[in-house]
Amino acid sequence: MYCNQCGKKVEDGGVFCGNCGNRFGQLLDENVSAFSPATTIPKSYKKLLLAAIAVVLVISAGIGAYSHLHGGGSESPMVGRWHYEDRNVVVVFFKDGSWESIDFGYMYEETGSWSEDNDRLTMIPDDDYDDITSLNYYISADGSTLTLISETGDVIKLTKLGDK
Prior knowledge:
The chain is of the alpha+beta class. Helices cover 19% and strands 33% of the residues. The strands form 2 sheets. An 8-stranded antiparallel β-barrel has the order 3-4-5-6-7-8-9-10. A two-stranded antiparallel sheet has the order 1-2.
């Protein structure tokens, strides 16, 4: 026999359900039924539930793929405009993996590509593939300071500029 309130098995002649506390007392025949809890959810509902979950997963995957292909999603905190005050240089890291630096002191501009992996920044200039730079980097918790450390231990601190 099973409790009609929670569906748990009840001992024959029991007064209370050991699971939910439902009292059977004199109304034992009304409060206890002989149905099995496994048969309370029809198989058609289970199939419908699985189909609904599959549809939600497919829609979520489609939205994620669309967002990724169209520049959405999370981007690297490296992306943006950074200012190196000691030399009056601005470096811009773009979402597409390109970079541009402008040295206002010498009026010199340089471009290239960049990538990051395990706190390591690699910058490849467009005009000189022999001058590939690989640096350790750290971004402050608030995202306002980028610290670059060369293999020789030189430290360069850049400050993030607004998104103008």
